[in-house]
Amino acid sequence: AAEAHVPQWAKEAVWYQIFPERFRDGDAANNPGRSSLEWPVVPSARWKLSRWTADWYAMDDWEKEIDRAGGRDPSPAFYKAGVFDRRYGGDLQGVIDKLPYLSDLGINTIYFNPVFYARSMHKYDGNSYHHIDPYFGPDPKGDFEIMDKETSDPATWQWTSADKLFLEVIKNAHERGIRVVIDG
After folding, report:
1. Exposed (0-12), middle (13-18) or buried (19+): which is 40, by Cβ within 10 Å?
2. The model scores a pTM over 0.90
């Protein structure tokens, strides 16, 4: 068996993991709506973005409408009653805005949870592995219009605004001596 090679930079890395949707909302204009959810028919029409400072176990009104456990019970029913439909509006602009803070912390590597387009909250089940999630960029509507015109032929692929903003994240991070690693 071949010996594993760990790059020197990784041995000395100070990591900071970012779950983009839950990191920081830097652009309220791109916040996801109910139709962006994996199963938008389940949450009530009263669905809304979750408050950043909300108690994790306190259910919003729209969650209580589908709750079968009665409110603050962190039972399996709690997790079926909307928690996976929560969205906070975190985006790449929020990451860019916080790069000075991250740099001041002394980190030198950002490990991103998946950033590719997926309807799920966690993005581990990507619908597209060649585009950054449109809700992480400045123009979700325009990005979806671009993506809708694409086929499996790479000649039809175009850069979306979210793709371009992710390149800005990388550029700005590298200017601060921060490496970027993405999870797929």
Report:
1. middle
2. no
